[in-house]
UniProtKB/TrEMBL annotation:
Required co-factors: Zn(2+)
Superkingdom per UniProt: Eukaryota
GO molecular function, one term: metal ion binding
Keywords attached to this entry: Metal-binding, NAD, Oxidoreductase, Zinc
The protein, known as: Alcohol dehydrogenase
Kinase listed as a keyword: no
């Protein structure tokens, strides 16, 4: 976000929907740009698997068995 940026959130909806808003005091915009550059150059490996919605039960089974590595992305169009 730009310096001195702010945002607002509706209190009632935030509480009822149990939304958590988190921030970080670590890093700045230059650090973010550097981290993105590392990723672009392939220096950061992010393990992820994309699965279709039809495979969701298989993903739950893998989680239950402790066999998930990285992140799973569910593509609802599949």
């Amino acid at each position: 976000m730009p310096a001195n940026a702010s945002f607002s959130a509706p209190v009632f909806d935030t509480v009822v929907r149990m939304i958590t808003i988190k921030g970080s005091y670590v890093g700045n915009r230059a650090d973010t740009a550097e981290a993105l550059d590392f990723y672009r150059r392939g220096l950061i490996k992010v393990p992820f698997t994309t699965v279709g919605l039809s495979q969701l039960q298989d993903v739950y089974d893998l989680m239950k068995d402790g066999k998930i590595t990285g992140r799973y992305i569910v593509d609802t169009s599949k």
